UniProtKB/TrEMBL annotation:
One of its GO terms (cellular component) is nucleus. It is found in: Nucleus. The keyword Transcription applies. Residues 1-86, 117-159 are annotated as: Disordered. Residues 179-209 form the C2H2-type domain. GO terms for molecular function: DNA-binding transcription factor activity; RNA polymerase II cis-regulatory region sequence-specific DNA binding; zinc ion binding. This is SLC2A4 regulator isoform X4.
Amino acid sequence: MEAERPPAPGPGCGRPQLRAAGRDPAAAPVSVPAPPQGPAVEFALPQEPEPRAADLGAPGAGAAGPPTPSAHIPVPGHRAPPGKARLDEVMAAAALTSLSTSPLLLGAPAVAFSTEPSLEPWREAPVRPPGSSGDGGWGPTSDQSSPSTPSPPLPPEAAHFLFGEPALRKRKSSLQGLFQCLWKRCGKVLSSASGMQRHIRLVHLGRRQAEPEQSDGEEDFYYTELDVGVDSLTDGLSGLTPGSPTASVPPAFPHLEPLEPPALPSLLRPPALPPPPVLSSLPAPQGCLAPVHPEPQPIPVRACAPALPTKPGANPRKPRGDAKKCRKVYGMDHRDLWCTACRWKKACQRFLD
DNA sequence: TGTGCCGGGGT
DNA sequence: ACCCCGGCACA
Ligand SMILES: [Zn+2]
């Protein structure tokens, strides 16, 4: 019960989080001359990557990079070192280029990333729910508003990163498709079926997460799946964002059915029901029989099915978004540049799918 | 093996 | 509200 913080890294670097502690605007060693034609945005991606690459070592090095001694502070505006262009540089440049520039730069080596027909949706950031956190996607820390005040190349921080490695971790993800909980007053919408199942199992069915037995599939009865394409998905998400003045129904989300011809049942049922069901006594469900809960839900869609993602003709798999997110774009060593959502391991808000 | 992120916990 | 991480599905 007591905190057994085993090996404290040491004073100064209590956690690997290493927030952008040293971000002094004044001391900021970065002063990239505002781009003459830069309309805005562009968090200053220097024409050339800093020599910092040397310190970072391998780009994909998940593990802590080699603690290269002498972390020389990168000089902004400093031209690339005459000699070699490291993969890191190219990558960074490419990523950044594709990010902050329009299709104007086609000759760049960023072709690797420009495979996407239309990116940088965030750039346009047409609708940013004001009610929501001002973070949205950009403005990681707080400053960064003027075009001439881009983000620093993280000078000394880089060193910290190397030393205070956050150790390794692992996670996964899934995307594409929306799932709405049909539970009376819930109506929660998740983007992953598994998540929804878990949600229902734990929250509504009050079931143990570690239930070795095969899932009875009961969860399937309480949520509906919304099949949507990537495009529509993005659209849906847009409207999904809180703060959508449109529509007179704040809850539930907007449209999404019109996208699909037929097939979509009447989902999204404005709850407006009494209290949620009680999850006290849990009668054992019987295979396909509809759950015998005291207060069943508005009847699920797939009434009596094998209850299992065993979809013969369809692809049960939900391909994840391919868009590179902050983590990949900036790398673990630039977490400060990630959007807040990414930093918190939430759905990226900067690089939408 | 690494990534994206839900859900839940801490403050 | 902000922040973070366990753990999972996916690539
Ligand atoms: Zn992000």
